[in-house]
Amino acid sequence: MNWRLASRLSVITLAALVVVFVALWGLRASGQATSSIPPTPTPQGGLIGSDLGETAAPNFTLTDQNGKPISLAQFRGKPVVLTFLYTHCPDECPTIANKLAIVMHNLGKQAQQVAVLAVSTDPTGDTVASVIHFSQVHHMLPYWHYLIGTRAQLSPVWKDYAVYANPAPTAVVATTGPVDHTLAIYVIDQQGRERVYLDNGFTPAQLTTDLQKLLKG
What we know:
Glutaredoxin
């Protein structure tokens, strides 16, 4: 995690600690007792996740599993779920893909009003064939654009979104080993602003709720 995301999360943590301290001090001064701690402030709009302050999401253009150029900017007017995966992942990436499939199912017809972008963290191992197979297995082929490319094409996107990725060297024909990378889900609103950050511990219900709130405007 680089300074960009770390600084955002540190601000959120500091704000939460200040709220807790002030609340507990006030109760102590008034002689009252409580067994509960005030909740962490929620992002504007009541979204679930770490507030990203409505920062403009950096644009990028990559190629999806169908060989089609896809840019983030083309989805203005739709909420966007942006994540970072690789197809040979043995554990967390399949879990995230499965959760996203549940979210799309939960949204029903509204799923057509949401864009899901998965950016590869493995420029060598994520081939068109492996991406299509992964998408089919996890029931996401109709719902997302899985974006692939060379390390030179992908690494600026990783950097812009504070994602650490350590794939195998490009000289390797294919990699089926683990790739160390950040597990990140960004929820971006219809105006192209980063709203909340979720890690791999998110639940389909949480993300479904966030998207439904954004769709309501």
